[in-house]
Structure formats: structure tokens, C-alpha cells
Amino acid sequence: MKPPKTQEVYAPKDVAIPARLGGGVLKEKVIRELPSKKVIGYALAYINPLIFSGDNGRVLGYDNSHGYSHRHYLGSITPESFDGYEQLYNRFEQEWQTIALRFVNGEPI
After folding, report:
1. What backbone torsions phi and psi does residue 79 show, to the nearest 5 degrees?
2. Which residue range is the domain that position 69 belongs to?
3. Residue 76's closest CA among 59, 95, 93, 56?
4. Is residue 22 within 8 Å of 104, Cβ to Cβ?
5. Rounded CA gap, 60 and 47, in Å?
6. Which of 8, 33, 80, 96 has the most neighbouring CB atoms within 10 Å?
7. If DSSP codes are grouped into helix, strand and coil, which group holds residue 52?
8. Average pLDDT of 5-25?
9. Phi and psi angles of residue 108, each rounded to the nearest 5 degrees, phi first
10. Domain for residue 20, yes or no?
């Protein structure tokens, strides 16, 4: 008999952003503890080497892979509080869309 699973991983396929919307790729991975569904690991990234060539093209990202919650932005890393995955995801969505729109419009990022 198999032991019960203690974690579940959600990692959908990468999402390609059309060039007319700024281009790039969105990546997401969430690890939840079972049975509580508590988020114990996460990584969100907006990759677009046309905007930023450093950090493997990662323009914006949030993760907790180094033992603390932090934000990647154009090669800089800053600690960030984690107030829940849904709130973080919504913030990420708003931020990458703003960045992409500025890029498309030729505005500073």
C-alpha cells in the first residue's frame, strides 16, 4: 500500500504572451501541503529577454526558493512579505501586465 501523499504540485504549462502584448513567457509553480492545502512553495516569473537579458531573462518574479519570500525585478532581489498566494498572484498579474504595457508603448520600465 502506498503512503498518503504529503504534497501536491501545481505547475501548468508556460504561457506565451503575444508580441503585440509585450511578448515573453509566464511561469508558475505552487507546492501545497496535504491535506491542509497550505502553500509551502511557490515561484512566479515573467521572462522576457527583450526587456531584460540578465537573470535568464527574468524581468519579474516572486518565489520562496531560498528559504524566504522575495521578489526579483530586473536582476535585483528584495525580501517580500507573504500574505497568501492569491494576493501574491494578483499582485504579480498586475505588475507584469504594467511592465509589458510600458514596453509595448516604449515607456521606461
Report:
1. -65, 145
2. 7-101
3. 59
4. yes
5. 7
6. 96
7. coil
8. 95
9. -65, 145
10. yes
| The three cell numbers locating residue 53 | 537579458
C-alpha distances in angstroms, 65 versus 7, 22, 78? 16, 27, 13
Task: Provide the 8-state DSSP code for 23.
Answer: -
Dist CA 17 CA 47 (whole Å): 10
Q: What is the pLDDT of residue 6?
A: 92
Tell me how crowded residue 57 is: count the other CB atoms within 10 A of its CB: 16
With 80 as the cut, is the pLDDT of residue 71 above it? Answer: yes
Q: Rg for the chain (alpha carbons), in Å? A: 15
Distance CA 90, CA 92 (A): 5
Residue 108: CB partners within 8 Å, gap ≥ 6? Answer: 102
Mean pLDDT computed over every residue of the chain: 95
Angle at 15 between CA 99 and CA 17, to 5 degrees: 45
Q: Is residue 66 part of a domain?
A: yes
Residue 70 is assigned to a structural domain of this protein: yes
Residue 1 has pLDDT above 90, yes or no: no
Whether this prediction's pTM lies above 0.90 is answered by yes
How many structural domains comprise the chain? 1
